[in-house]
């Protein structure tokens, strides 16, 4: 996340905030679905799915465009839940 924020801030003169404290990372799942074709690109669809708990606010812009190296594919989806929800 912080790498992506740094990229956007540097390349597009944005002012997104870095995450400073992550309370926990749980439910880690490794995925590897191999190569997929998206228009003119081939992408190796692999990575991790996990739950991150934090007390900081995320920019709605980043929630709209997604988070992750391949967010152009719709990767890096974020589901927001209040910490009191299951």
Please describe what this structure looks like.
- The protein is an alpha+beta fold and 86 residues long.
- Helix content is 20%, strand content 33%.
- It has 2 helices and 2 strands; from the N terminus they run H-E-E-H.
- Strand 1 and strand 2 (41-53) form a beta hairpin.
**Overall mean pLDDT score?**
77
How many β-strand runs?
A: 2
Side-by-side strand order of the widest sheet? 1-2
Largest sheet: 2 strands, antiparallel
Radius of gyration: 14 Å
Q: What global shape is seen?
A: flat
SSE string, helices as H and strands as E: HEEH
Number of helices: 2
Strand content: 25-35%
Distance between the termini: 23 Å
Coarse structural class: alpha+beta
Give the helix level as a range of percent: 10-25%
Unreliable sequence segments: none
Describe what is shown at a glance.
This protein has about 90 residues and is of the alpha+beta class. Helices cover about 20% and strands about 35% of the residues. Strands 1-2 form a two-stranded antiparallel sheet.
Defining traits:
single chain; alpha+beta; flat; 86 residues; 2 helices; two-stranded antiparallel ribbon
Mind sketching the topology for me?
Layout: H1 2-12, E1 24-38, E2 41-53, H2 60-65
Antiparallel strand pairs: 1-2
């Amino acid at each position: 996340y912080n790498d992506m924020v740094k990229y956007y801030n540097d390349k597009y003169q944005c002012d997104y905030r870095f995450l400073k404290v992550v309370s926990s990372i749980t439910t880690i799942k490794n995925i590897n679905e191999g190569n997929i074709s998206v228009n003119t690109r081939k992408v190796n669809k692999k990575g991790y799915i996990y739950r991150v708990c934090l007390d900081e606010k995320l920019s709605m812009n980043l929630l709209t465009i997604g988070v992750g190296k391949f967010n152009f594919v719709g990767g890096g989806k974020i589901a927001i839940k209040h910490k009191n929800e299951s």
